[in-house]
From TrEMBL:
<dbReference type="GO" id="GO:0042132">
    <property type="term" value="F:fructose 1,6-bisphosphate 1-phosphatase activity"/>
</dbReference>
<dbReference type="Pfam" id="PF18913">
    <property type="entry name" value="FBPase_C"/>
</dbReference>
<comment type="similarity">
    <text>Belongs to the FBPase class 1 family.</text>
</comment>
<dbReference type="GO" id="GO:0006094">
    <property type="term" value="P:gluconeogenesis"/>
</dbReference>
<protein>
    <recommendedName>
        <fullName>Fructose-1,6-bisphosphatase, cytosolic</fullName>
        <ecNumber>3.1.3.11</ecNumber>
    </recommendedName>
</protein>
<dbReference type="GO" id="GO:0005829">
    <property type="term" value="C:cytosol"/>
</dbReference>
<dbReference type="GO" id="GO:0006000">
    <property type="term" value="P:fructose metabolic process"/>
</dbReference>
<keyword id="KW-0119">Carbohydrate metabolism</keyword>
<dbReference type="GO" id="GO:0006002">
    <property type="term" value="P:fructose 6-phosphate metabolic process"/>
</dbReference>
<dbReference type="InterPro" id="IPR033391">
    <property type="entry name" value="FBPase_N"/>
</dbReference>
<keyword id="KW-0479">Metal-binding</keyword>
<keyword id="KW-0378">Hydrolase</keyword>
<keyword id="KW-0963">Cytoplasm</keyword>
<dbReference type="GO" id="GO:0005986">
    <property type="term" value="P:sucrose biosynthetic process"/>
</dbReference>
<feature type="domain" description="Fructose-1-6-bisphosphatase class 1 C-terminal">
    <location>
        <begin position="203"/>
        <end position="332"/>
    </location>
</feature>
<dbReference type="InterPro" id="IPR020548">
    <property type="entry name" value="Fructose_bisphosphatase_AS"/>
</dbReference>
<dbReference type="InterPro" id="IPR044015">
    <property type="entry name" value="FBPase_C_dom"/>
</dbReference>
């Protein structure tokens, strides 16, 4: 009967979020409405990404499609879709997007209490070759009443109420945490619904995979170089780790979350703060990793404790299985000036 119940008792993401809401009787459902608008954006982008090859949506802006219309690049299109969906939810007041230099302050008549930071289509350089890409997002509550200010989105990642990503690959998978664990939902295109397929995801305590761009090895600092060396030539006779690097953060993080291991984007001489952005790449993925029992470290501190000063600030990041991150933390601690 359990199997039967599972097939007919579809737990959609909307039902899941409503269940979460029912645990907060004081809630007015604003958060549920906001999440539903984010889910709508993900469904639209999923459909656009899947059609990209056919509708010549890929490639550079300026190409014209069969209707002779000016084609928008997928990441530009995705950004517009999310901005419109978030503003129309009537629950947001500040939006920070990887695509927009400045933060968007929502007009007063449509304002709500939430600030959303997002990368509408991360890894978009991989679109043309069909590698999985994704949307990454994080949600803050505005700090206090009154006029929304930029400081309301320059909060440490530990203040996030929720974070997640939607990966557009062989299937469309949305991984979400609202602060009570991590759940994965897969889009059933015939229903147009995200169905709970990965309940209560926990990352293995230790993994057999390391994920880094080895092409940057000549620029790495001591601790990173030592750690990667240890992955490849373990001194304790344990088997070497496998290297898996897709070059699309959502895909590399999703594999790390499900299989275990460690994902590294270290600082190097070329980029002293690494490459990945704090607000809408490092924080949401670090939030998910901690919620799944893993951890996330910047080389200096717990990633979620970082207080950003600018909305597009970068940070080095080491995230994944708890024990694997502990090892690289020890190597950085050993380098600390006494
Ligand atoms: P590199 C994609 O461009 C991205 O922003 C992330 O999705 C990915 O993890 C990283 O950059 C890859 O960077 O320097 O290894 O190509």
């Amino acid at each position: 009967h359990a199997a039967e119940a599972h097939r007919t008792d579809l737990m959609t993401i909307t039902r899941y979020v409503l269940n979460e809401q029912s645990k907060h009787p004081e809630s007015r459902g604003d958060f549920t409405i906001l999440l539903n608008h984010i889910v709508l954006g993900c469904k639209f982008v999923c459909s656009a990404v899947n059609k990209a090859g056919l509708a010549k949506l890929i490639g550079l802006a300026g190409e014209t499609n069969v209707q002779g219309e000016e084609q928008k690049k997928l990441d530009v299109l995705s950004n517009e879709v999310f901005i419109k969906a978030l503003v129309s939810s009537g629950r947001t007041c500040i939006l920070v997007s990887e695509e927009d230099e400045e933060a968007t302050f929502v007009e007063p008549s449509k304002r709500g209490r939430y600030c959303v930071v997002f990368d509408p289509l991360d890894g978009s350089s991989n679109i043309d070759c069909g590698v999985s890409i994704g949307t990454i997002f994080g949600i803050y509550m505005i700090k206090e009443g009154g006029e929304p200010k930029l400081e309301d989105v320059l909060q440490p990642g530990k203040n996030m109420l929720a974070a997640g990503y939607c990966m557009y690959g062989s299937s469309c998978t949305l991984v979400l945490s609202t602060g009570a664990g991590v759940n994965g939902f897969t889009l059933d295109p015939s229903l147009g619904e995200f169905i709970l397929t990965h309940p209560d995801i926990k990352i293995p305590k230790k993994g057999k995979i390391y994920s880094v761009n080895e092409g940057n090895a000549k620029n790495w600092d001591g601790p990173t170089a030592k750690y990667v060396e240890k992955c490849k030539f373990p001194k304790d006779g344990s088997p070497a780790k496998s290297l898996r690097y897709i070059g699309s953060m959502v895909a590399d993080v999703h594999r790390t979350l499900l299989y275990g291991g460690i994902f590294l984007y270290p600082a190097d001489k070329k980029s002293p703060n690494g490459k990945l952005r704090v607000l809408y790449e490092v924080f949401p993925m670090s939030f998910l990793m901690e919620q799944a029992g893993g951890q996330a470290f910047t080389g200096k501190q717990r990633a979620l404790d970082l207080v950003p000063k600018k909305i597009h600030e970068r940070s080095p990041i080491f995230l994944g299985s708890y024990d694997d991150v502990e090892e690289i933390k020890a190597l950085y601690a050993a380098e600390e000036p006494k």
